[in-house]
Design a protein that fits this description.
Strand content: under 5%
Helix content: 55-70%
Radius of gyration: 20 Å
Number of strands: 0
Structural class: mainly alpha
Largest sheet: none
Shape: flat
Number of helices: 11
C-alpha cells in the first residue's frame, strides 16, 4: 500500500461523496473511502477519527454548494422561500444518498446552518415568531427532505404507481384513481405543487 499523501478535508469529502454516489449510504465505510483514496483504512484514521467525522465532511461538502444569500428583499416572502427551497433541492438531488446525513449532521454544517438562518429571517419577516416559527422551519425542512426521498425512492413514474393504479376500484377507489392521474404529474410539478400547499397553509 503506498505511503499516504497529505490530504485536505475537501479531498476526503470528495472521496467519500464518490463512494456514496456509487454505492449508496450502506456502502460508505472507512475502508471504502480509504480504497477510493488509494490508502489503507488505518492511514485514513490519521485524517479523521471515525466515520461520523467523515460524514460531517461530506454533508458540508454538498451543502457548501447551496447559495444561502438572502433573495431580493422586495420580493414577497413566499417567493423568497421558494427560491431558498429550490436552491437546496437542486443541490441535494444531485447526491440523494447524502440526504439522511443532512439530518444527523445538521448542527455541524456551517452551510446548512446558514441556509436555515436565511430561511428563519424570511419566516420572521412573514410575521412568524416563537413556537410557530420553530414548527414552520421544521415543517419546511420536513417537506423538502420527504419530497426528495419520495422523488428518489418512490417516483410517481415508477412501478409502484402502476401497481396502485391497477388495484381493484371497489376496494381502493381513491387510491386507484389517484395513481392513474399521478402518472402524468412531472417531478417539478409534484415538488413545487406540494410546496405551494405548504406555503398557503403557512400564510393562513
Amino acid at each position: 500500500m503506498p505511503r499516504p499523501r497529505s490530504l485536505t478535508p475537501d479531498q476526503l469529502a470528495s472521496a467519500a461523496l464518490a463512494v456514496l454516489d456509487r454505492e449508496g449510504l450502506a456502502g460508505l465505510s472507512m475502508r471504502a473511502v480509504a480504497k477510493e483514496l488509494g490508502m489503507s483504512a488505518m492511514a485514513l484514521y490519521r485524517y479523521v477519527d471515525d466515520r461520523e467525522e467523515l460524514e460531517g465532511l461530506v454533508v458540508e461538502r454538498v451543502l457548501s454548494a447551496v447559495d444561502t444569500t438572502p433573495p431580493e428583499p422586495g420580493t414577497p416572502w413566499e417567493e423568497r422561500l421558494r427560491i431558498m427551497v429550490g436552491r437546496l433541492r437542486d443541490t441535494i438531488i444531485a447526491h440523494p444518498a447524502v440526504l439522511p446525513l443532512t439530518l444527523t449532521h445538521r448542527h455541524r454544517s456551517p452551510s446548512g446552518l446558514r441556509w436555515s438562518e436565511t430561511a428563519l429571517a424570511i419566516l420572521t419577516e412573514a410575521g412568524l415568531d416563537g413556537e410557530r416559527r420553530v414548527v414552520a422551519l421544521r415543517a419546511l425542512l420536513g417537506y423538502v427532505i420527504g419530497a426528495i426521498q419520495l422523488e428518489h425512492l418512490g417516483p410517481l413514474s415508477g412501478t409502484g404507481t402502476v401497481a396502485i393504479a391497477e388495484l381493484p376500484s371497489d376496494a381502493f377507489p381513491y387510491m386507484a384513481e389517484t395513481a392513474r392521474q399521478a402518472r402524468s404529474v412531472g417531478v417539478e410539478r409534484e415538488f413545487f405543487g406540494g410546496l405551494e400547499v405548504f406555503l398557503r397553509g403557512l400564510g393562513a
